[in-house]
Amino acid sequence: MDFAAIDFETANEQPSSVCSVGIVVVRGGEIADSFYSLIHPEPDYYTYWNMRVHGLCLEDTEKAPVFSEVWKQVIPKVKGLPFIAHNKGFDERCLKAVHRVYQMDYPDYEFYCTLQLSRRRWKGLPNYQLHTVAAYCGYDLNRHHHALADAEACAHIAMTLLEDSHTNIFLFIFLHRWNI
Questions:
Q1: Of 11, 12, 99, 159, which has the maximum CB count within 10 A?
Q2: Which domains does the chain have, with CATH numbers?
Q3: DSSP label at 55?
Q4: Which ranges in 79-123 belong to alpha helices (H)?
Q5: 55-109: pLDDT as tens digits
Q6: CA pair distance 120, 124, nearest whole angstrom
Q7: Using CA atoms, how far apart are residues 10 and 15, in angstroms rounded to an integer?
Q8: Residue 41 and residue 107: Cα distance in Å, rounded?
Q9: Residues 15-43: pLDDT tens digits?
């Protein structure tokens, strides 16, 4: 299955405040492309907690392009691909919010969730946080909360799920249709 793993980091509690994006494109079961960019957030302020999580601050993004400019670079890379995220609710909410803020048409991207799929497929993990599931899949996530590193971890989890003979692509479709 071809897909684009995506991860956003936000500057504050507003889902539109994306301050970085990481995307990993998988084609034919192999990583074919990746993309990372800092983004000037909207609204343009950082909370202590968010800075503590990902380490970005106002100085990092004050000269970064706004989302609408960054997304122009992303569109050709992800055209026709479904998105996969670890906790799709967060990343999908962010993507919809920034499309609204910049008055961009939202093309109803397909989203699948490695968090939900891993909970269903691999019972008994100590938790289902990205770094835990990535480690279970043999991926060393050593830059957690860096958008590109998180997108790479998500891509590896998804590839492991797809390679697993017990996981069926129809499970992805079922979970997506029922918003699980």
A1: 11
A2: 3-177 (3.30.420.10)
A3: -
A4: 88-101, 114-121
A5: 999 999 999 999 999 999 999 999 999 999 999 999 999 999 999 999 999 999 9
A6: 10
A7: 7
A8: 22
A9: 999 999 999 999 999 999 999 999 999 99
Peptide bond into 82 cis (omega under 30): no
Yes or no: say if 134 and 159 are a contact pair by the CB < 8 Å rule.
Answer: no
| pLDDT tier at 1, thresholds 50, 70, 90 | confident
Q: Which of 8, 145, 180 is nearest to 85 (CA)?
A: 8
pLDDT computed for residue 97 by the predictor: 98
Q: Quick one: how far is CA 83 from the chain centroid?
A: 8
In sequence order, what are the residues at sequence separation of 6 or more whose Cβ sits closer than 8 angstroms to the Cβ of residue 49?
Answer: none
- Look at residue 4 and give its three-state secondary structure: strand
- Alpha carbon distance 82, 177 (integer Å): 13
Q: Percentage helix, strand, coil, to 5, in the chain?
A: 45, 20, 40
Other residues' Cβ atoms within 10 Å of the Cβ of residue 175 = 16
Mean pLDDT of 149-178: 75
**Amino acid letter for position 178:** W
Instruction: For residues 170 and 78, give the distance between their C-alpha atoms in angstroms, rounded to a whole number.
Output: 21
What are 140's two structure tokens? 């060393």
Please write the tens of the pLDDT for every residue from 102-148: 999 999 999 999 999 999 999 999 999 999 999 999 999 999 999 99
